[in-house]
Amino acid sequence: MIIDSVILHRLNMQLKAPFQTSFGTVKEKDFYLVEVVDEDGFRGFGETSAFSTPWYTEETTATVKVMLEQILIPKLLAARIEHPDDVTLLFQPVKRNFMAKAAIEGAVWDLYAKRNGLTLAQALGGKKRTIDVGISLGMEETTTALLKKIEQYVSEGYKRVKVKVKPGKDIDVLKAIRKHFPQIPLMVDANSAYTLKDIELLKKFDDFALLMIEQPLSDDDIAMHAELQKELETPICLDESIYSMADVKLAVQLKSCKIINIKASRVGGLTNAKKMHDYCKEKGIAVWVGGMLDSGVGRAHHIALATLENFSLPGDIGGSGRYWHEDIIAPEVVVCRGEINVSDSPGIGYEIDWEKVKKHRVSKEVFQRKRKTT
Ligand code: MG
What we know:
The chain has 374 residues and is of the alpha/beta class. The protein is 35% helix and 22% strand. It is built from 13 helices and 15 strands. The chain has a seven-stranded parallel β-sheet. A four-stranded antiparallel β-sheet has the order 3-2-1-15, sandwiched between helices. A two-stranded antiparallel ribbon has the order 4-13. Strand 6, helix 6 (171-180) and strand 7 form a beta-alpha-beta unit.
């Protein structure tokens, strides 16, 4: 494959409702839809998943743009690619900047699958025809409002509920949830809101039969998570701590977690995500696919990823209508009884809805391969 051009469409989309985590509230998604075009006119799509501020990881929409424009796009436009794995190798000399890399790599995966008449799921080696999904709920002003939301999504059939927690918004909230929903598969995500000093508080989480507690401690605290896991019955799931295979291996070796949340964007792309999935399968670590308040393009990538065998727990892959009044793909992603049917169409399996893209587009930039002139 020779990538002829890369087009960055900057989009700004308002979330249906603000999403509150332990770090703050997200009201809109400002991101880049990345379009890659090869010499035969095949097109692939990816999206940047970083937020506007670095509360989740160090990357932001602005840092991603700099990396794409100055480093990654020029590298891609100067290379010849046989397989999307080559993009991972091509970007390897560039430290971190995983979300910037993943946006391009994802677009190349889509293009590669389309070129070969495969669905992205098939190209990745996924076999599932449907995937199970759970709902991730932000914090609400009142517990009553949260219970109402849970009620709504449980009635829509989502297979597990995840709520965000932080000190002061944890035990009482969980007591209320369990009082009303004693049986629902429930988990919490702390986004690093606790430290080991909170160990007595965190032990109380064991009373609520949680599937897992996600990222209780700081993202650079893989060792401390091992200390905590020794004290907890509830499985720890790592999210922000895991960027590379080295992180996965360290977490497994130290017994820092029993579960890992794999987001293609956080780990530099689908190639790395698949490698982590395979390694975790071998080591008996359960994995599931997380979400980044993605538009339909990122969502479609995650659906394809979740078709791999060891993604045995429901992912944070809601329907398009979970976050958006209107998504930028056609058809939109629909959740039915907690499941999403995997599309049979080539590549990501959804068309780009250009009318919607134009509506939300702030800017468009085209980067072209340099042609040799004689
Ligand atoms: Mg998380």
